[in-house]
Amino acid sequence: MDAHPGTYTQQQQQLQLQQQQLLVPVRQPRLYIIVLPVREPERTPEVPEDSKEVFEACWKRFELRYKLKEVHVPREVVWLNGAPGAGKGVNTDHVLQTRGLDISMCISSLLKSDKDISGLIERGEMVPDALVIDLLLEALLINGCDTVECGVLVDGFPRTSMQVDFLKLLGNKLTELHMLWASTSHRDRFPRPLFKVVMLYVDEETSITRQLERAKVASVHNKRVMDAGAGDLWAQRTTDLSIETCKKRYDIFRQHHSAVLRLKQFFPFHLIDAMGSLAETQEAITTELRYQSSLDLSYETYAAIRHLPLAVDLTKSARQQLVMRLDNHAELHSANFQRVIDIITTEIMPLIKESGLAGRSEYVSESKVFEEHPRMAQILIDILTDRGYSTSHGTMVQHVPVSMDFTTGLIKNTKKILHKFTISWDTSGVRERAMEISQGLAEVTVHNVRISQSFMPTDHAARELRTPQPNTSSSLGGDNSTMHSLRESVNGS
């Protein structure tokens, strides 16, 4: 809207105000306005004043200690949370790999580095929010990233209602910094913040069982290390040693769980059922954290490209469109349809068979039929597509000398138009599938039973039998007898 600052008339300024308020755009001659939905901060639940005061105090201490030019904002932060024993630590590397993040930091480790609060952690009690915020700001914005496009995972934050408010306020603050530095040489240090929240959930019984089992495994491991005199000792949490302490930790988690769920109002929130095995949990993480342009791109970027159809959506309707085109070719252009079938049978299929394992072949034609009947190229592509081949078409112009004036040295050329069809098909696992088929024919066991089937209508089966098959005896040799015996065995079954 600010492409020409200082040139707005009063009417244009009023129109801009209407757009910002999401009113119906005013129609003017030769003026086209697209009003896109915008995020409205006023609709977001207000952050309590006490949370604002704590955050502002922490931010002021941060600014007094560090200069903004020392700040390096991560391009993406995944806030990993969950119940005790839900598997945050064991799934950290998987989340890093899934989202392409660079480093991880654990809030518990940060807090344990402070001697004043280590006693609170040992007793399973919560740490004051202000201290958590101070440590996190330094770790995330100063010590976290030292390269452009760095991504960070934060394990164990937020856990309280005030920390939830802090996360919202931090997102707002980093957005302000992004806008402030966007036009400067320091813009790479202040990217648009992308926050995602991941919650691993287990019930109380599972949480307590896993905490106690964790202590038992660590105890056995450490005993073996000490007996052998080699290896590294594992850290053993005192909170994992008794049912009472484990239950207290889960109770604290439940007290603040509803507060953490409020993050769904602010950021992409992924609730993962971690009750199953590690493989099942990681599969759920992969599914939930997959790339989604509507969540990962900025609103402006996504709004600019959202009208373009997704490939998966086009694929859904492509098959129906192909069927309609083929029926249309056969009914309305039957002569050309048959001519293309003859070309494929006599000229293209021999090339494909020669390149069977290569998965790629090229057919170049000098025939003028493709010039006289342009539809034939599309017919050829559609037929091969229906049979499972990927086909592309292009034309080439070739200049062919026809005569030469030996006096002047001039050469007279004629143009020849060549039509090139590039044909490819999938050959992955061909040998493996052949082995599986041969083994399946040799021996049928209960373990090989499959319930997936395709049921063809009777008229379709009859039509397949009536369809004339090309004579392939010259290329297949003795395979015709094999095919005949297989057909007899199928009919007999």
List keywords for this structure.
493 residues, alpha/beta, 5-stranded parallel sheet, 3-stranded antiparallel sheet, 51% helix, elongated, disordered C terminus
Please, could you describe this protein's structure?
The N and C termini lie far apart (73 Å). Helix 2 packs across helix 6 and helix 8 crosses helix 9. By secondary structure, the chain is an alpha/beta fold. The strands form 2 sheets. Strands 2-3-1-4-5 form a 5-stranded parallel β-sheet.
Average per-residue pLDDT, rounded, comes to 78
Poorly predicted runs of 5 or more residues:
1-8, 18-42, 444-457, 470-493
Q: Report the C-alpha radius of gyration, rounded.
A: 34 Å
Q: What proportion strand?
A: 5-15%
How far the N terminus sits from the C terminus, by CA atoms, comes to 73 Å
Task: Please tally the helical runs, counting DSSP H or I stretches of 4 or more residues.
Answer: 20
Shape: elongated
How many beta-strand segments? 8
Strand and helix order: HHEHEHHHEHEHHEHHHHHEHHEEHHHH
User: Which structural class is indicated by helix and strand composition?
Assistant: alpha/beta
Main beta-sheet strand count, sense and barrel state: 5 strands, parallel
Helical percent range?
A: 40-55%
Lateral strand order in the biggest sheet: 2-3-1-4-5
